[in-house]
Design goal:
Blueprint (H helix, E strand, L loop, with lengths): L6 E5 L4 H12 L3 E6 L5 H15 L2 E6 L5 H15 L4 E4 L14 H29 L2 E6 L2 H5 L5 H21 L4 E8 L5 H4 L3 H10 L8 H12 L10 E4 L6
Parallel strand pairs: 1-2, 1-4, 2-3, 4-5, 5-6, 6-7
Helix pairs in contact: 1-2, 1-9, 3-4, 4-6
The chain binds 1,4-dihydronicotinamide adenine dinucleotide.
Amino acid sequence: MEYENKTVIVTGSARGIGREIAIKFGGLGANVVVFDIDIEGQAETAQTVCDEIKAAGGGAKYYLGDVSKPDDTDGLIKFAKDEFGSVDVIVNNAGITRDNLIMRMSEADWDAVLTVNLKGAFNVIKSAARTLMKQRAGVIINMASVSGVMGNAGQANYAASKAGLIGLTKSVAKELASRNIRCNAIAPGFIQTPMTDKLPENIQQSYKDAIPLKRFGQVEDIANLAVFLAGDGAKYITGQVINVDGGLVM
Ligand code: NAI
């Protein structure tokens, strides 16, 4: 069990890609902290994910909060240490979209997306930095997007936030490498989740036509890379952005 006695934090793991990553780490023996926004019914949802992680063979506890609030991310790191004794892997996965053409994009939609997607990851990393540096070990994985690599019409805010995450990833990789802390980004293409289910059918089809593999990816395609990047098999990989996109970007 590669991740036995390791503590893995996955933000935005009540559903979608984050949930799959959390369960995958659980199946490899990790103690997983499921972190997600505190909305109505979320405690039950998060508990269900914890039950799935335990059924897969891991340990699990949930903690609810908002990645864009430093007090919440400080609380998250403290919770992980109190409950499981360390913070070994952090997956900054929480993210939102507020798509619109730039001339119709409101300042509020710009701010919301940048605040959750980019500042949220900064907050979690900052809250965890001292702990990881003291341990002289740790892995950070940031969930970027192909939109942040190649841009996307109608997603100026989202693409900017994900491109920002790539800059954050490389800077953190350089800053913390001497303490044996690695930081990489995953750039998913179109993955079938509630986020992509929201897209109109004709838009989904036009995206599929542009993907060399002609289909959307599955959440497990992203989870497989996350567990690889967090593990010893990737111990010489840092500061990288890896596309998982059916060949969309090449
Ligand atoms: P999703 O919308 O299904 O799940 C996102 C999760 O993040 C939700 O559980 C949500 O409650 C949580 N969240 C949102 N705001 C939060 C906050 N302020 N604090 C804490 N948690 C918060 O999205 P999905 O599709 O699973 O995406 C996960 C990540 O992968 C996101 O960062 C997204 O941008 C990225 N991504 C997804 C792609 C896709 O095709 N689904 C493609 C490229 C990137």
